[in-house]
Write a structure and sequence with these properties.
The complex is a heterodimer.
Chain A lengths: L1 H37 L2 E9 L2 E12 L2 E8 L6 E5 L2 E6 L4 E6 L10 H11 E11 L2 E10 L6 E7 L5 E7 L5 E12 L18 E5 L3 E2 L4 E3 L7 E10 L15 E9 L4 E8 L5 E7 L2 E8 L2 E7 L3 H8 L2 E3 L3
Parallel strand pairs in A: 6-12
Antiparallel strand pairs in A: 1-2, 1-11, 2-3, 3-4, 4-5, 5-6, 7-8, 8-9, 9-10, 10-11, 13-15, 14-21, 15-16, 16-17, 17-20, 18-19, 19-20
Chain B lengths: L1 H17 L5 H12 L4 H15 L11 H11 L18 H13 L2 H4 L17 H4 L7 H5 L8 E2 L1 H6 L2 H12 L14 E4 L3
The chains are: A alpha+beta, B mainly alpha.
Chain lengths: 326, 198
């Protein structure tokens, strides 16, 4: 009787608290999203992935509704990226190339909002953890754990106050960090306008290129069984080419057209690329950090899958690709 | 007399070479003698002797231009080169790391907060809209027309797939839409379709 009593008290104490936590954590995610846009800051961050480390300086400003951002690579070849709202310009001084494009990642999923908010908590457990400290700034840790084996978990830390995200980690099923990105130094507040200007004003002699475009399409390809919660975000035709290092020509020699379907559960994304078989390719599945890549032949087509999901999810998708024209 | 001695020494060395017993320090002499064509008869005779010692059945004379034929076939063999040093799956430090971060910081939770449109106002056919709904008429993929009876040997070989430089292109294309940590990591190197106006 006594035990039951205590159990009831415990349940009363924790169950609602847990539920509140989830709501609060998800609300915090939205605040993080907002902060990334509206907070001005100047800092250095590192990105760690499979034993590799890369650091960059980022300066971000939000003035009168306009977003400006400058990112400078601090390791290896020089490079600079400047963004004004959705217009991206990247400077590659070593190859004297100026590249312009429209930002695609953000604001890319107009159809998502309808399902993301309620559905996320069906597939992930949200939790607020203890306060931590990153780059000298106190932050609130949010732990996002998957409810099945078909996606990874995340640990994010949001600055107190301000909610700027200071740390993001992708974790596997054993809570092992697969990759992470974190500020190592940070000043939040007003930034000097001049610091947002390019270091390469003299570009008269530079080669100017524009990013390859993706054209919406409806190819007739479909995925029969997706991991729960994943929805099709886009389907496009685009050109794919191989990359080269800066010392050689910048124009890919083997550009070819593929159909790309993009699926997301709101946090993780899976791309399915389909193209006619052309030459010998090597089928297989590889995993690096949080990214899984798989390639295989399907009839007279070659299928490539890329996603920040465990191999099980990639396999599930590969096994259910079919051509079903309406 | 000296020449005869030298001659015998070279012959011994060629014989040793045929038997795989030529000492390292004598190898140069034996090979240069063979190269000079003066001892090619010895080379063939010693091989023939060796063959006959192994088996009577091997006592067959080679056609006169056998060597020339073999050399010609070897020369026409395709040369297989090692894949380039570019290791596709190592996210080498690029501008994009930076981009990555910003996109991480900004978009890891995109869908949570999506709602802006017009990100692609520069490209009318992109229009920032969900495609399937707007494309009423069915568009046959250009792919299908091209897809002939081409076949390929798809071999499962992880290490070779790893080196497939094409993977980079797919990663880049994926990261354009993904809210992963290195979204847009390939801003520097992704496909370029058109040169901008000067």
């Amino acid at each position: 009787m006594r035990i039951l009593f205590f159990t009831l008290i415990l349940l009363n104490a924790f169950v609602p608290a847990f539920a509140d936590d989830s709501v609060e954590a998800q609300a915090l995610l939205q605040k993080i999203q907002l902060a990334s846009k509206k907070v001005s800051y100047d800092g250095t961050f590192v990105f760690q992935h499979e034993g590799q480390l890369a650091s960059s300086r980022i300066i971000h400003s939000f003035e009168a509704g306009d977003e400006f951002e400058k990112i400078e690579k601090l390791d290896g070849q020089r490079g600079e990226y400047i963004r004004h709202n959705e217009d991206i310009t990247s400077y590659q001084p070593e190859s004297k190339t100026l590249r312009t494009e429209k930002r695609q990642s953000l604001d890319m999923f107009p159809a998502v909002l309808a399902f993301s908010a309620p559905n996320l908590s069906e597939h992930y457990q949200f939790r607020l953890a203890e306060t931590a400290r990153v780059a000298g700034v106190d932050c609130r840790m949010i732990i996002i754990e998957p409810k099945d084996l078909l996606r990874y978990g995340y640990r994010l830390c949001a600055a107190i106050p301000g909610n700027l995200m200071l740390l993001a980690q992708t974790t596997d099923l054993n809570s092992r960090v697969l990759e992470q990105i974190a500020f190592t130094s940070l000043n939040i507040g007003h930034v000097d306008e001049n610091s947002l200007k390019t270091d390469y004003p003299d570009i008269a002699e530079w080669k100017k290129v524009r990013d390859a475009v993706a054209v919406p399409t409806e190819s007739g390809w479909a995925v029969r069984t997706l991991p729960a919660g994943f929805k099709k975000m886009r389907e496009v035709r685009r050109l794919i080419g191989t990359n080269f290092d800066a010392s050689t020509s910048r124009k890919p020699t083997d550009l070819h057209e593929v159909v790309q379907m993009v699926f997301s559960d709101g946090l993780a994304t899976i791309s399915v690329f389909i193209e006619p078989v052309n030459g010998e390719r090597h089928a297989g599945i590889i995993q690096k950090g949080a990214t899984t890549v798989s390639g295989f032949q399907l009839g007279s087509f070659w299928v490539t899958l890329v996603g920040e999901v465990p191999a099980a999810a990639i396999k599930m998708v590969s096994d259910s690709i079919e051509y079903k024209p309406k | 007399m000296e020449i005869g001695k030298q001659n015998r020494r070279v012959q011994e060395q060629i014989s040793a070479l045929v038997d795989g017993e030529c000492a390292t320090h004598e190898l140069d002499l034996a090979l240069s003698a063979l190269k000079a064509q003066a001892y090619t008869d010895e080379w063939e005779i010693y091989h023939q002797i060796g063959d006959i010692l192994k088996s009577e059945d091997l006592n067959i004379g080679l056609s006169a231009d056998f060597t020339a034929h073999l050399a010609a076939s070897l020369a026409s063999e395709p040369v297989y080169r090692k894949p380039s040093h570019h290791f596709s799956f190592q996210f080498s430090p690029k501008v994009a790391y930076a981009v990555a971060a910003m996109l991480t910081l900004a978009t890891i939770l995109v869908p949570q907060f999506a709602g802006h449109e017009g990100a692609e106002t520069g490209a009318p056919y992109l229009a920032g809209h969900f495609v399937a709904a707007t494309n009423g008429a069915q568009v046959q993929p250009a792919l299908l027309a091209v897809a002939g009876s081409q076949t390929a040997n798809a071999r499962t070989d992880q290490s070779r797939m790893l080196r497939d430089p094409q993977i980079d292109g797919y990663l880049a294309a994926h990261q354009r839409y993904s809210n992963s940590m290195y979204s847009a990591i390939e801003y520097e190197t992704g496909p370029i379709s058109q040169e901008a106006e000067k």
